[in-house]
Description:
The structure is a homodimer.
Chain A: H1 2-15, H2 20-36, H3 38-54, H4 59-65, H5 69-84, E1 92-97, E2 103-110, E3 113-117, H6 122-134, E4 138-142, H7 148-164, E5 172-174, H8 180-187, E6 195-198, H9 202-211, E7 224-228, H10 234-246, E8 255-261, H11 265-278, E9 282-285, H12 287-294, E10 299-301, E11 304-305, E12 308-310, H13 313-316, E13 324-330, H14 333-343, E14 348-352, H15 356-365, E15 370-375, E16 392-394, E17 402-404, E18 410-421
Parallel strand pairs in A: 3-4, 3-6, 4-5, 7-8, 7-14, 8-13, 9-12, 9-13, 14-15
Antiparallel strand pairs in A: 1-2, 2-18, 10-11, 16-17
Amino acid sequence: MRDELLRARAASRLALTLTSEQKNMALHAMGEELIRSSEEILLANQLDVQRAQDAKEPSSRLDRLALDKQRMQTIVDGLHDIISLADPIGEVLSAWTRPNGLYIEQVRVPLGVVGVIYESRPNVTVDTAALTLKTGNAVVLRGGKEAFETNTALIHALRKAITEVGLPADLVMILQNTNRSSIDELIRARGLIDVIIPRGGAGLITHVVEHATVPVIETGVGNCHVYVDVQANIDMAIDIIINAKTQRPSVCNAIETVLIHEAIAKQVLPRVSYQLARLGVQLRVDEASDMILENNDLVYEEGVFLVKQLATDMDYATEFLGLTLAVKIVPSLENAIDHIMRYGTGHSESIITEDIEAAEIFLQTVDAAAVYHNASTRFTDGYEFGFGAEIGISTQKLHARGPMGLRELTGYKYMVRGNGQIR
Amino acid sequence: MRDELLRARAASRLALTLTSEQKNMALHAMGEELIRSSEEILLANQLDVQRAQDAKEPSSRLDRLALDKQRMQTIVDGLHDIISLADPIGEVLSAWTRPNGLYIEQVRVPLGVVGVIYESRPNVTVDTAALTLKTGNAVVLRGGKEAFETNTALIHALRKAITEVGLPADLVMILQNTNRSSIDELIRARGLIDVIIPRGGAGLITHVVEHATVPVIETGVGNCHVYVDVQANIDMAIDIIINAKTQRPSVCNAIETVLIHEAIAKQVLPRVSYQLARLGVQLRVDEASDMILENNDLVYEEGVFLVKQLATDMDYATEFLGLTLAVKIVPSLENAIDHIMRYGTGHSESIITEDIEAAEIFLQTVDAAAVYHNASTRFTDGYEFGFGAEIGISTQKLHARGPMGLRELTGYKYMVRGNGQIR
């Protein structure tokens, strides 16, 4: 692997001085080549899908893996979106002259070589290559073995396109070895890889953080909450809870627990439980919530009934990523914040209230990448934030926090111009 | 240790909402208490110094460790400087409204709990506590055992002062255990410590990077170069080389290698070698330099003679941190850049030239925290950059690069205000 990483490092040096036009030409060529090669790519994809079917993989996994003409077009459209974004490289973040005459500029530059470890979705292969190329980085991809044939075909097309426009193909590489050992080698390649971005489940991310010597940007684990304050607009609260839980329950910015102020719980809980039951959401409730719900008829209508059980401490710490929602009644805003700080993962947290003062306390004191007042946590997303792209959502505090777009794939350096200054 | 870290974490939550006035009051009280307690502190320091003397520590180490009234006053003056700096917390880095009406603010916030591992200098204890408090962070210090008594007395005074103004003393903690094991526990306290900053030699930093699971900001290892281009102003080049090597050779922004374009080497090398020899600098030279110097009389005057030997590959990779300088003659700017990219540590690199085009190529393509045109590398420093403070010099690319002042001890979060938005 060392030889591959040295080639990526060499390519990244050449990429430092690419113009926006050169990078956009490469992205454009990548789109064209993907269309031209789409037959080979779809054939390769069929091999992967067939293998997954033979291995009796669940249909959700097959769906993530499978490509067709329309999905290929979506991928190419994504490339064109990235072309249209402004190039952040070269931006002067600040500039000043010192009393001794030194002129100091803080300039945005590429990070260098980015390592991305991900699982089965083939669109990630192209998206990631495009985002890193646009930001003047080289990328070393380590995809899952279930998408090996597809990724190989995709990368072949991308590298061919990059070469056609005269840039080094090694700006985009994928590791041929899809064993666990290739992850471990990649994340310890200090001096060759500048940052590792693991995109996957909590197991992968923990493994990477525990074993990496290269800096890591953690992404994606979200145990998110909505807190319904005593002065909440109840209709709004219900809409936001339903949206944040059910619009796409498998993603990291969906909520896992609702906290409800005790003074408003009797008004909120029966109504929202009915709506949740209609959408198939099961509840894990504390005793206070359980008592409120027991007073209601839990078979709402033909085929709609509430499934609930008492919540354990572990439930409050769990990212269900599905149609399960924990519920807890709290005596105060402070108590809600304490719960969030104890169980949250620093991803996205929302308060629903008409009380501006309570909202401000929540926004200031909840320590998370994105804190919301009267909005769904589902907006923590590069596209929803208006970044035009997303490489992941950081749940750590260094370098990048929350949605990461192009800017978050860059760093800076200081350029200092003098006329002979010494100390 | 876990209990201590939980207390630091709790204190850091309270610090999120401190006003600038509260933090400055605490810093002011810290200064007053240090003056009030200076007798106890100096007594404690004498114990440490005595122990170091008994252990026959070198005098440079004793000097770093020793405090006196004047050094105490310098430390207190440093606190007042930090009081006068602007508080970066709460700064809105950017703000925008989305088409759906969501108002998104990116706001500068504390990092949380900062762990700092350092060696013997007692001023670091106070400086670090002040910088982290000013930025709303809690700090867990892990000082060297040679300064244990001094640090204990200093921290006692600082915590007393913090308590006096009504803030939690646990904003500033020092680990009582000064064994290696306390480093290992600290750097693996994921979820309790938000960032580790190791301040020390290459051995400490490598150990931390290899074993940490908490994010690390690497500091300080500097294998820095001056490149004298073919079109250099020779007088300027010599002044800058002398300054960058000898003004303070033990620091990370001092240079370790001079690269000289072959077309100007005969004009530069004999003159600079004479000046270096007068200041006691020994050279490690390549064969081409050796031949140029052989043509000269190497005993310059009474007591001034050049000590040189042929450079090995290892010499070019070494941070001498003393009066040794490697020299190499290169055929081109590109060759100089290649050498720097191969041996440099991404700290500070300078080109001396009157050729603006060559300077721009150097500034753009040399990948280091600070790149200089016609100036000494010694300016890579928080004070020289005008930050008014410094917690270290980062040689990594994520989060912070180059001199780290107050801003580099902060992160950001997104505050999103809506009126019921859902996806």
